[in-house]
């Protein structure tokens, strides 16, 4: 029987330290952590590893339910998978475990709240962007590619493969940028 801690943050500017410290204080023998969105399980390799190696009697421990996921159905499916393997899930804040029947009810409600919170955050973000656009202050997201660099290298005679390698991106992205330029 192992206590397996799982910590997650959504963005690189968030910090895992508080979650890791709390999981260590809870005597988790194994702690897996990652920087990935909680909107779905895609790109969450550490969580997949935990689920793949769960044994009967193991316990997955998270500091808050939203660290496990932001979609109610996904969280409930995850809990179901853990239970199918004879394992349980414990949330530290508020302290709820799937070991008891009431824990399932509370986790379902908490999962629904987490999903609603995610929707509220997205709505507030859209409203903020709309206000910024109306005020002329919205500049859009951060540019992911150096368009000027791509065009300069293309003008120097470099092909898409060389440019893609130099800028650490795919050739398809280079083709799109060059096509936009005309």
Automatic annotation (TrEMBL):
Domain Resolvase/invertase-type recombinase catalytic: 2-136
Regions annotated as coiled coil: none
Annotated SMART domains: Resolvase
Keywords: DNA integration, DNA recombination, DNA-binding
UniProt xrefs under Gene3D superfamilies: Resolvase, N-terminal catalytic domain
A single GO molecular function term of this UniProt record: DNA binding
Active-site residues, as the UniProt record annotates them: 10
Any Gene Ontology biological process: DNA integration
Record carries keyword DNA-binding: yes
Domain of life according to the entry: Bacteria
InterPro entries: Recombinase_CS, Resolv_N, Resolvase-like_N_sf, SSR_resolvase
Keyword Ion transport: no
Family: Belongs to the site-specific recombinase resolvase family.
The name this protein goes by in its record: Integrase-like protein y4lS
Organism of provenance: Methylobacterium tardum
